[in-house]
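Project standup — Tuesday

K.O.: blocked on the structure for the chain from last sprint. Re-posting the sequence here as requested.
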Amino acid sequence: MSRKEIIRCGWCSNDEQYQKYHDHEWGKQVKDDQILFEFLILESAQAGLSWITILRKRENYRKAFADFDYKKVAKFSEEDMLQLLENPGIVRNKLKIASAIHNAKIFMQIQQDYGSFYTYLYSFLPNQQAIINNFELLKQVPAQTELSILLAKDLKKKGMKFFGPTTCYAFMQAVGMVNDHVLACSYR
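H.V.: unblocked you, prediction finished:
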């Protein structure tokens, strides 16, 4: 009896951590605002870097950013920020760290205005449903879309930082607003 061959999207290569993330998280719908905030922090930190770099630092981010508790992060002081800048376990970029703290405040304002961050995000999607794309090849998957441009622009208008259209699209993929697993992928 032969085991079914597992086929994955090409971007996760043979890295075990990448494969675990691909198989169990990427493209899976997230409704929990705290997890949405986690990906907001991580995707913003990733800007200009590879995702695997951030994935390998994820647990350090979890510890550094109060288990991704946006209420606590929003209250981080200047002293907290200086401690984060000394933390070798995260990306020590002053602008990215400051934006994470700032974005926590914007995140909570959006929650207040829309009832939840999830509700806000899905208000941009057709019929408030995730988009399931039908790409055969990895090279067909876009880096950004009209929707990610629109959402990033609205978030920027609300005050969000380090969250442009490409980062926004990566976030949308990560939290399952968009399913970009290629057609042959076993985890589609």
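K.O.: great, moving the ticket to review. The domain at 31-179 is CATH 1.10.340.30 (Endonuclease III; domain 1). The chain has a mean pLDDT of 96.
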